[in-house]
Amino acid sequence: MSPPLTTTTTTSIFSPSKPPPPLYTFLFFTALCFLAFFYTLNPSQNPKTTLFHTTTLFLSSSSNSTISSYLHSLTLHSHLAGTNPSLDTVNYVFSFFKKLKLETHIREYQVLLSYPVKSSLSAHFTNGSFVNFNMNEFVDFSESEKIVAPYHAYSPSGTVHAKVVFVNYGREVDYNALGVSGVNVSGCVVLARKGGGVNRGGVVKIAESKGAIAVLLYTEEGRVSGGVERGTVMRGAGDPLTPGWAGVEGGERLGLEDREALERFPKIPSLPLSFGNADVILGSLGGHALPPEWRNSVDTRSRVLRVGPGPTTVNFTYQGEKKVTTIHNVFAVIKGVEEPDRYVILGNHRDAWTYGAVDPNSGTAALLDIARRYALLMQKGWKPRRTIILGSWDAEEFGMVGNTPSLFSHLCAMGSTEWVEQNLVNLGAKAVAYLNVDCAVQGPGFFAGATPQLDNLVIDVTKKVKDPEAEGATVYEKWAAKNQVNTIQRLSGVDSDFAPFLQHAGIPSIDIYYGRDFPVYHTAFDSYEWLTKHADPLFHRHVAVAGIWGLLALHLADESILPFDYLTYVQQLQRHTGSLSRLLDRNISLHPLVNSIQELASAAKEVEYEIKQLREQESRGGHVDLKLRVLNDRLMLAERGFLDVEGLQGRQWFKHLIYGPPSDYESKLDFFPGIADALSQSTSKSQQNRQAAIQHEIWRVARAIERAASALKGNLT
Ligand SMILES: *[C@@H]1O[C@H](CO)[C@@H](O)[C@H](O)[C@H]1NC(C)=O
Ligand SMILES: *[C@@H]1O[C@H](CO)[C@@H](O)[C@H](O)[C@H]1NC(C)=O
Ligand SMILES: *[C@@H]1O[C@H](CO)[C@@H](O)[C@H](O)[C@H]1NC(C)=O
Ligand SMILES: *[C@@H]1O[C@H](CO)[C@@H](O)[C@H](O)[C@H]1NC(C)=O
Ligand SMILES: *[C@@H]1O[C@H](CO)[C@@H](O)[C@H](O)[C@H]1NC(C)=O
């Protein structure tokens, strides 16, 4: 699932115009539905009219009951990637597409996954008594056997017996606070709570560097639900044994003991813990008092007063196994009639830690409903101009970071990453856009992330879809009215399947969802029942997501000129540069950046003018097919300009120099990741080296923007 990023890269998209009166909107929708009954689609019509009819018919075919039934079927069993029950969902999605008579296929990869064998934890108190903790969640007994025990994927196995220290969120600042009180965690088991901007893998990595010998991690949200949060602690992109290439059967694969593979795994074991169990330990700690700066934020119902070390000790055992396992991506393809070699890709992952009702099958159910509705359009004669691909990814969870705003780790979803790696050249030459939905519905409120040239498309489409809560309003009206969320986020995180498409392959991307957080994240309680009780009782939010998602793809597939606006990208880059300038010393020059953005601006203006002219020619019935194709290629390829062959320093898989994760979770930038890294690494360097490194990264970004400008202009120098 996809957490919202911090606000530094977001951009306000709304002008304060008054929403239309509800009656007007109501009539508009009634008219749309009415029209839908009377039009069948005729491809020989003027392209604009056809898209209008397709849109009308698509919107009128929405249904909350189909989505709810798909979700119910997908979530009957827990379906962790690589396990037998997960094959049921592979078959379900495959036969679903087949029944709709869509061209369907499965791509398998072999990747290294990680499963728990045994875990135990006991706390030993100074008065001689001890507790053996139940490490499972309390759920219906017959079911509980089928749910994977709470664990951290890729944790090494290990048994340790040591004193416990509470380390708050486990950030550098937290260890500094402990240091001030003279607490040294070396040789101890650290107990941390989740949050504070650092993710699971980051907590373990920092603990390791401080000399801790094991990590216990709990979430305060689990206090009510009793849930325990599973998740991965791996470092690296995609399959750890096939870094940068696809894990195909019989292909090259690193050994588990190869240095490059070992670097991706933590060195100390870790386990997730329930709030209740964590609190028993916390309440028994002696030693130093809680640092004053932690006091206000600790859950007031928690019994923690002191941080240790000890005197309570824990006997911690985790035994896991890593094994190379087959995963399955399922595809449906709707061939484009005019430009079959241009791809609009909709993607969602299918695998889940447990039942996965919210994460991710709320998105899968929406994807399947879009397939149903596209098949309906096809029956009425619709064929898209460009090819539409629906992708259902596997094993996202094994490569994904938790739902904190942190960008610390370098992790990526596996099924989608392997596929992008295998198809890199074809995607680079032919993919128009990637549209991601992970957790479609977590709760109320619409959220969107996008590369900036797609902002206006997102806005236009949300103006056509009914709001799930406000009668008579559109999603846009409700979204725009909520000032605090009137932003489109940027996709610098690695928390869902858009990361390989954008950050490795440079494909313009969108990510949409309802609701920011949900308390049963990665627990046994992420079930159909929970979702219908808390997140979307009538499935109206699902309908809204499916509507927006499906319409985005229809526009991208059917508009004769791609709906990309690079002037928006220019404005966003200017704002990024402004934010960057506030963090820099005066003798670092931003001129290269400013100049390159100027170039992109002039290319974008040129294109705007050309589009106007082409539209006129088109409406006069002129033969513009080849001209359209040439212009669209420039629009499509401009984003690829932001890629750099060398990638980010030390993390070469990340090729995009505008959007990607900075390696420091405390970085103030969530754009220009190379510059962000130079800024945060620089403290350890001499002043002069530091400035040279920052300046060099600025030049690299400037050259990337120039490449984009030149691709958009479409001329050789
Ligand atoms: C903590 O203790 C270890 C082992 O005794 C020692 O090597 C390390 O330097 C200590 N760390 C700090 C910050 O004092
Ligand atoms: C021993 O100490 C633990 C932790 O403080 C406490 O929960 C437990 O009740 C104590 N047991 C006895 C027998 O006093
Ligand atoms: C710790 O737990 C393991 C596994 O349950 C057990 O074999 C071992 O004896 C325990 N060690 C101590 C010191 O309690
Ligand atoms: C679909 O929406 C209708 C109208 O709001 C509602 O009555 C119905 O219960 C919903 N169906 C499901 C499956 O939630
Ligand atoms: C930047 O300015 C500082 C202080 O004004 C100076 O010490 C440093 O050498 C300058 N660096 C460069 C690269 O000009």
TrEMBL record:
CDD domains the UniProt entry points to: M28_PSMA_like
Enzyme class: hydrolase
Pfam families cross-referenced by the UniProt entry: Peptidase_M28, TFR_dimer
GO cellular component: endoplasmic reticulum membrane
Domain annotation Peptidase M28: ranges: 329-533
Necessary cofactors: Zn(2+)
Protein's name in the database: glutamate carboxypeptidase II
Organism: Salix dunnii
